[in-house]
Amino acid sequence: MAHEMIGTQIVTERLVALLESGTEKVLLIDSRPFVEYNTSHILEAININCSKLMKRRLQQDKVLITELIQHSAKHKVDIDCSQKVVVYDQSSQDVASLSSDCFLTVLLGKLEKSFNSVHLLAGANAAEWDWLCVKCQQHLSKA
Questions:
Q1: 119 and 10 Cβ atoms separated by less than 8 Å
Q2: C or N terminus of the chain, fewer CB within 10 Å?
Q3: In angstroms, what CA-CA distances link 142 with 20, 30, 50, 63, 121?
Q4: Alpha carbon separation from 115 to 11, 69, 98, 143 (Å, rounded)
Q5: Rg for the chain, CA atoms, rounded
Q6: Which of 53, 54, 34 is nearest to 45 (CA)?
Q7: Cα torsion at 92, 97, 103, 104 (round to 10°)?
Q8: Residues 68-83: what's their mean pLDDT?
Q9: 3-state secondary structure string, 30-97?
């Protein structure tokens, strides 16, 4: 059972529309294991995956979420607290069903302290996932 509400959900169609509009900066965070990220991910997404050590360091405030984002990114990321952040793991259906001790809950909580707008991408089935990756890649390749 999740503790107080963290983040809000966003569906795949809304994320694609948000990216296609280009009116807002969006920071995409892939919280799946590195192997899954390497197999298929949304272009420009930053992989921040769970390890017991990293989860503990985040919980104890021994690492700032902004430092973790910069460290995990393949390039320097311009971090702006007003930008939207969308986190996905390809299996979580909604924020309310997350355990208060799971890595995703910890990650969303830390992101919410640094960013004004944090969203969890509602779990997508395999076909929706493939569609989302293609749509996001098409949009980002035009930019």
A1: yes
A2: N
A3: 10, 21, 32, 35, 23
A4: 19, 12, 20, 24
A5: 14
A6: 34
A7: 50
A8: 86
A9: ECCCHHHHHHCCCCCCEECCCCHHHHHHHHCCCCCHHHHHHHHCCCCCCCCCCCEEEEECCCCCCHHH
Average pLDDT estimate for 111-132: 78
Specify the pairing of strand 26-30 against strand 84-88: parallel
Number of helices (H) and strands (E), helices first, in the chain? 6, 5
pLDDT at 69 over 80: yes
User: Is-above-0.70 flag for pTM?
Assistant: yes
Closest CA to 76 of 86, 66, 84, 85: 66
- Both structure tokens of 58: 């985040």
